[in-house]
# Entry
Amino acid sequence: MSVSVDDVGLTVTGAADEPLLVSFDGAYVWSTTPARDGVRQLPGRIQVGWPDVLAPYLDGRSRVQVTRTDGTVLHDAEVALGAGHGRISVVDGQGHPLSVDKVGHLARAFADTSEVVREEILAGTGRVLEDLRGPGGVEAYLNYGALLGAIRDGRMLGHDTDTDVCYLSAHGDPVDVIRESYRVERVMRDRGWDVLRMSGGDFKILLPLSDGRNCHIDVFVAFHAAGRFFQLGNRSGQLERSAILPVSTVSLHGHDFPAPADPEAMLAFVYGPGWRTPDPSFKYADPPAGIRRLDGWLRGFRSDMPAWSEHHAAHRGRPETPSEFGQVVAARLAPEVPVVDLGAGRGRDALHFARRGHEVRAYDFSRPAVAQVRRRAERAGLPVTAERLLLDELRFVAAIGGQLARSAPELYSRQLLGCLTPHARAHLWRLARMATVAGGAFHLEYAATGPGPLPSPGPGGLVRRLDPDLVAREIAASGGVVDDQQLLATGEDPRVARLQVRWPRAVPDLSDLEEEIHVRAH
Amino acid sequence: MSELTDRARRRARGVARRARDRYQAPHAIEARLRALEEEAQEARQLQRRVAELTDVVTELLIPIHLRDDARVEEVLERYRSRL
# Structure
């Protein structure tokens, strides 16, 4: 086999059905199995393109080494990529080396992690498992790369980037599996963990490390349903309960962890029959029918979240002035009325309302956005409370809607509507109706469709234009009454709709009913 | 003669219909499969919605039933803060 390297990627001549490891200036960055990942060009020649996540880094010079897993060198030469100026350096913001993991993300590999940090990750994983098995009350076990490393030689895999744990649910219906996951999440939050929910069946524990990073420990549910075994990420197939419970114990760098009863059976289920042979280029081949089921049951409420979080993180600290609509609404609000900014982003309007003397609650579904609003408000000494709100999730809508109803606030949102799914829009109207039950209106602006072609209204195709008739029908169906609607061009968008909506009380509340009953009785 | 012609016509129509069905059937089946997959996905999505609803109701309803305002406030705050 021979390998050449250029701007497109690797070109491999000869048998190409084994994993190859690629490093730049001695730092491991990626591995691939060309026969699986590449495109056949001529007989006996395969080209594998660079992964998309590496593209932003591939400009400069580097000594590129391509080796087999046994260390045999197939390519070792200085290569110029892109304009070819400077050295190529695939590192994070703090200068830590990154590599492409098995799901195509850039992450930091254990081979490049200090012993101190590795110990922190292992101890943290142990505490997570203890909390899941103890107060969490679930049968949790170590799994995936960490389990594979433990069974192979008691050490973390050099090219792995995180630790994953699973628990076998006691339930067989997805609805109960999800409820159990919510309960376990609450327990973990009570135990002080920083938790990020990823789907109805998994969440991440963000473990802060002494080198400034957060290690993500995935907590995946596993369950038997519809005659199959499912284990998140996306695994599905056949694995008996007896292969998992009662848990056994494995050792990793001297730390003991609970593991499946039959670790070999679990590893064969996860990685296939060839799991004993090291393959850093391994990729899952999950049955599409299982993925469809898991997508339908558990997912779909945070599809745009990574893109929004990336957007807000990239614009961190960038100064913002209040929007035109924010200023218009601020000018017509009664003094001192509390304001709720829904979809507040990094807080350009929320802070404006607060500067004018309003107590403000700012909501956004992006963690980086909420963090920036908090930081900016704290720095400016402004009365802004920032929290996350996932409008696709009824749990957020019901709990926050109930809480807001007590303060009778004025609601405000700009550019939120076009970011939402139809389901989330229905929840937005529900939330607005709940929050304004004791008075107050919802002031909103969104990018509207028009007769001619109009520009995309937000970053990266994340915001859509909406038909004002559709919005009007949805509001009416929720019991809302539009006090005021304008379609206009502003300095920020050629066609926006501005509305003020109220939800008149159609049904008396419980206290009214009680009074009525009291009057009738006497 | 006319009976023969009629039979030939009927046969020709039958051949044409079968040819049309053979051409259209796979497309109709593909469209039905797509629709069924979408409908199956809609039904699956109810699992999470029912889970959310049940979670909210079971966590928040009991203190509300007890008409204990302070407890309602506390439970609501705790529920929200752990989302």
User: Anything to note?
Assistant: Chain B has two helices and no strands. Residues 10 and 59 of chain B are 70 Å apart (CA to CA). Residues 2-65 of chain B form the longest helix (64 residues). The interface with chain A takes residues 37, 40-41, 43-45, 47-56, 60, 76-77, 79-80, 82-83 of chain B (CB under 8 Å).
